[in-house]
């Protein structure tokens, strides 16, 4: 892989940079700290190819602060073709990423991307045959990581070399081989167990085959016996069927006889009915004259009823009018009573007007006095509340002052007792009790002064305030009993005052009520006259309609005779018809009775012919029961034979399975042996050990070529892969670095910093070249990030010369440095300069 171009937009600190590397071979990368040198030449290619490659930093954190869109375009040559990778990131919304892989064909870009980003990344890894870790290790020496290999312990070096050589794949292969071997071993053991179980099951096969032959013989004999029983059953069933036909005829005869009996009974009932009709018709004909007379009388009564019925609506109307008139009279009487009561009340109220006026005046005067009493009561209550508050405050102040006075008096009395103790105890002045008592006595004057200086002025002031408030309360002149008496008087006169206030409009109201009373009295007189007239008309009409119920009853009684008038002609015809029908019924009854006798004789003969039916049924049941038993036995034998055959079929399948398992067992055992060989081959002492043993001399050779160029042949490198154990016989796996010159060899750790750096670079360059060769995808590009800062001027010059001397091994060598004299050592310089808040890249 050879880089050709980098186009960077809003990536980390870089706003925009377009870096053309097509003409660059060996160049220094210069610019101030933070300008984006490392971001451009170490991070942006890795981001474009492999995506999220910086641990602890999300893709959104790679977008330049203040921007929302970021992109990196990386153009490179690989295996004779030119490719372009474009990766973008947007922080808008939930965030979005894109990735495009393109190949240049005949001067135009053609897409080689997949539908998904992950699939496109897989295509890039397959194209380069590299992942991010291998790509970084083979093309970059990152800042502070030049001695990542040499500065590690011997065991860690061997582990790093194994990782660089990709030997961890053999651990995965060994684990897969172990899993396959374990799976095969389980299958082999399961097959063995299955074969043993199948052998045990197959041991019963001869006994089951003999059991099958016996059951089949019994089955054949039982079939013959069943055939004989079925013939007997058919014979008996034929006999029973013949008798069943006769029994069916008996039942049919019984039904016919029963039907005839019903028909005869129906004919006799019809005859009785015809006789009754004939008798009723004869009676009608016998009373023909009376029926005609009653019919004429009914017509006359109906005419009278029609005349009277025509007058009934008039009676109903008069009764309704009378009812309405009476209701109106009742209402007028009630209204007059209420008006009279109201007029009486108003007259009584107006008669006591002067007395009410006097009472209203007294009420107004007492109301004014009550307002004055309530104002005084309100002021008196406020003074009373203030007086209670001052008295409570005085009691608290007095209690506090007395408490302080009591406390001081008690302390003074106690000190006076101690003072008396000083004189009476006889203790020496140096006694601690004497000293304590003396100190206490010294406080007596101060305590007496405090007692005399107690301030009682606030208490005196409160007492004066209480007296002043009490005097104001007395001067107010409030009389509670007079206040209550006035309030009672106002309540007593309130109703009279209210009535008097309402008398103003009651004169006019009295006149209106008296006028209404006269009008309603006139209406009442007129209503009474109308009621009397209506009542007279109703009485006269009711007298005219009085015969109506009697005529209706008489008409109803005669009506049953009149209805017979229409039946006279029908009665004559009925008499003639019923005589003919009665004669026909007698003839039909005689014929049916004759047929009934014939059926009875046939029935008796058939009963004699079916007497053996029960014995044949018993015989049939017995034969059928025996046949069922033999069929059940046959079914059991068939089931037994089927079970034996199913078991033999299962044993056949078991035999086939055993043969298959036995045939599969040998190749599985062979495969298991092969996997065991693979497990050993993929182990540390197998193929990985051989690869390391082969890779170390190659690494040593490449490193010595590079170190020889750097040191002008002064130093060489030798790797020791084994070390003798001191505590016991044997060797230990290691990877020590021994550095030699013309005189001797000594460990890498004993050399100075500058010399170690040259050795670091030599081994690091060798590892990069070895890795690229073994990856099968040579990366002809090397980036060194800030690897010169720890060197003095002399050693820095040596390192620069060493870098130049190995540059021929790579198509592109880029050295990122901020040291100006180091930058001057290179013919080509890629300079990062600030321009308008971004970075301007100049390739010179």
Automatic annotation (TrEMBL):
Keywords: Coiled coil. The keyword Coiled coil applies. The keyword Oxidoreductase does not apply. Residues 167-201, 236-425, 503-595 form a coiled coil. Residues 5-202 form the Rad50/SbcC-type AAA domain. It comes from the Bacteria. InterPro entries: P-loop_NTPase, Rad50/SbcC_AAA. Pfam families: AAA_23. Heterodimer of SbcC and SbcD. PANTHER family: ABC TRANSPORTER ABCH.3. Belongs to the SMC family. SbcC subfamily. This is Nuclease SbcCD subunit C. It comes from Paenibacillus residui.
């Amino acid at each position: 892989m050879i880089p050709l171009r980098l186009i960077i937009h809003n990536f980390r600190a870089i706003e925009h940079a377009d870096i053309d590397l097509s003409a660059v071979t060996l160049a220094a990368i210069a610019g101030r700290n933070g300008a984006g040198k490392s971001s451009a030449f170490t991070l942006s290619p890795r981001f474009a190819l492999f995506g999220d490659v910086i641990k602890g930093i999300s893709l959104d954190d790679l977008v330049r602060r203040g921007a929302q869109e970021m992109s990196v375009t990386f153009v490179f040559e690989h295996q004779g073709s030119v490719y372009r990778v474009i990766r973008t990131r947007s922080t808008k919304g939930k965030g979005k990423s894109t990735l495009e892989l393109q190949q240049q064909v005949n001067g135009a870009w053609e897409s080689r991307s997949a539908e998904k980003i992950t699939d496109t990344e897989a295509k890039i890894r397959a194209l380069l045959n590299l992942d991010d870790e291998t790509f970084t290790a083979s093309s970059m020496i990152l800042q502070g990581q030049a001695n990542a290999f040499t500065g590690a312990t011997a065991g860690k070096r061997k582990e790093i070399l194994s990782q660089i050589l990709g030997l961890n794949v053999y651990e995965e292969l060994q684990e897969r081989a172990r899993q396959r071997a374990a799976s095969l071993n389980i299958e082999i053991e399961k097959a063995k167990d299955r074969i043993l179980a199948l052998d045990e099951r197959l041991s019963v096969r001869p006994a089951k085959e003999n059991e099958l032959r016996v059951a089949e013989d019994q089955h054949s004999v039982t079939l013959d016996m069943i055939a004989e029983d079925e013939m007997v059953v058919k014979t008996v069933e034929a006999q029973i069927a013949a008798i069943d036909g006769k029994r069916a005829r008996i039942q049919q005869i019984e039904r016919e006889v029963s039907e005839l009996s019903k028909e005869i009974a129906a004919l006799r009932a019809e005859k009785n009915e015809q006789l009754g009709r004939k008798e009723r018709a004869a009676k009608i004909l016998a009373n023909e004259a009376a029926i005609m007379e009653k019919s004429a009388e009914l017509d006359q009564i109906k005419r009278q009823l029609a005349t009277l019925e025509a007058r009934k609506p008039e009676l109903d109307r008069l009764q309704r009018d009378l009812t309405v008139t009476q209701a109106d009279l009742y209402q007028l009487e009630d209204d007059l009573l209420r008006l009279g009561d109201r007029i009486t009340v108003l007259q009584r109220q107006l008669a006591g007007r002067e007395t009410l006026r006097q009472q209203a005046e007294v009420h107004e005067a007492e109301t004014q006095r009550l307002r004055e009493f309530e104002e005084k009561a309100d002021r008196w209550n406020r003074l009373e509340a203030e007086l209670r508050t001052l008295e409570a405050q005085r009691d608290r102040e007095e209690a506090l002052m007395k408490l302080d006075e009591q406390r001081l008096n008690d302390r003074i009395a106690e000190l006076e007792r101690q003072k008396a103790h000083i004189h009476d105890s006889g203790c020496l002045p140096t006694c601690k009790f004497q000293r304590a008592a003396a100190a206490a006595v010294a406080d007596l004057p101060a305590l007496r002064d405090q007692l005399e200086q107690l301030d009682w002025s606030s208490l005196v002031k409160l007492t004066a305030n209480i007296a002043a408030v009490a005097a104001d309360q007395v001067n107010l002149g409030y009389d509670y009993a007079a206040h209550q008496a006035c309030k009672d008087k106002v309540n007593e006169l309130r109703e009279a005052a209210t009535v008097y206030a309402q008398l103003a409009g009651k004169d006019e109201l009295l006149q209106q009520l008296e006028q209404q009373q006269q009008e309603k009295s006139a209406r009442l007189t007129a209503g009474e006259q109308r009621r009397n007239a209506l009542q007279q008309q109703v009485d006269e009409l009711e007298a005219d309609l009085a015969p109506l119920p009697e005529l209706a009853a008489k008409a109803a009684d005669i009506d049953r005779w009149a209805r017979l008038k229409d039946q006279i002609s029908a009665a004559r015809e009925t008499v003639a018809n019923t005589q003919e029908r009665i004669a026909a019924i007698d003839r039909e009854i005689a014929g049916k009775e004759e047929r009934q006798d014939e059926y009875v004789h046939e029935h008796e003969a058939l009963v004699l012919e079916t007497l053996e039916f029960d014995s044949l049924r018993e015989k049939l049941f017995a034969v059928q029961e025996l046949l069922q038993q033999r069929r059940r036995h046959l079914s059991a034998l068939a089931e037994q034979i089927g079970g034996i055959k199913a078991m033999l079929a299962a044993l056949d399948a078991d035999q086939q399975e055993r043969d298959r398992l036995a045939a599969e067992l040998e190749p599985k055992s062979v495969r298991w042996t092969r996997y065991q060989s693979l497990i050993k081959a993929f182990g540390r002492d197998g193929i990985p050990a051989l690869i390391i043993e082969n890779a170390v001399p190659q690494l040593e050779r490449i490193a010595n070529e590079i170190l020889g160029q750097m040191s002008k042949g002064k130093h060489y490198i030798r790797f020791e892969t084994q070390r003798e154990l001191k505590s016991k016989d044997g060797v230990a796996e290691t990877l020590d670095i021994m550095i030699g010159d013309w005189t001797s060899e000594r460990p890498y750790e004993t050399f100075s910093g500058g010399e170690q750096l040259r050795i670091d670079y030599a081994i690091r360059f060798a590892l990069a070249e070895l890795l690229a060769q073994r990856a099968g995808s040579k990366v002809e590009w090397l980036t060194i990030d800030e690897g010169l800062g720890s060197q003095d001027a002399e050693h820095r010059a040596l390192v620069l010369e060493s870098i130049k001397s190995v540059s021929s091994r790579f198509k592109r060598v880029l050295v990122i440095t901020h040291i100006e004299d180091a930058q001057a050592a290179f013919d080509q310089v890629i300079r990062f300069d600030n321009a308008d808040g971004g970075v301007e890249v100049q390739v010179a």
